[in-house]
Here is the input.
Amino acid sequence: MLDLLLPPRCPGCGDFLPDAGKLCAGCWFSLSFLSGPSCNCCGYPFPHDRGGEVYCGVCHAHERHFDRVRSALTYDGGSRPLLLGFKHGDRTELAPFLSDLLMQAGREFFTETDLILPVPLHPRRLIRRRYNQAALLAGCLSSRTGLPWEGLVLRRHKATIPQEGNYTLRQKNVRAAFSIQKGCQELIEGRRILLVDDVYTTGATLQSCARELKRQGAEKVFGLTIARVVRPGML
Ligand SMILES: [Zn+2]
Ligand SMILES: [Zn+2]
Here is the structure.
């Protein structure tokens, strides 16, 4: 009945579609999948296969608290409308479709993961938005993989992560942004954690979460996002 009153629309272009929570063919083909060779740690894509375990400049030069991060798509004109609709436009019906993309991009992680954790929103932002898009994805991944997820283990103290400045400055800015909920240490200690978020911009958010999790004794911390910003200059 709801579909008759409000026919589903493509989140990319707004065209009418027969089914909700999907993309039209044109928008689907505009997505850039990150399936080629990439940095073994952060997943930064390389134009050519360099053979073996290869790392990007940032992962060479800086300590990484996460072990490996993978993303499904490049964050660009093709994926942006989808991500913005999901994050700010109440398009929560996209969660199953987007978690399909995560299932594919993160397939190497699921046999090595004990617990899935979404990157949390600041409580003030959660009240305004009414949902945490990363938690919706974590819940979908949990039901598909059978792995447990917990939405209240990680807490966010700062509403925004400053993205300006050089790499070292950004890391310093986000250092105190996250903490572990009191009493949750036993869920973390000795466990392999998979962090889920919608977009990897500079990696500072995942770094900050991973740092806290490692401090609490996590054995491994992986990261999985739908999209990532790929800028040659960002290294
Ligand atoms: Zn479309
Ligand atoms: Zn890297």
Observations:
- The first helix runs from residue 2 to 5.
- The pocket of zinc ion (ligand 2) is lined by residues 39, 41-42, 44, 55-56, 58-59 (CB under 6 Å).
- The CA atoms of residues 48 and 55 lie 13 Å apart.
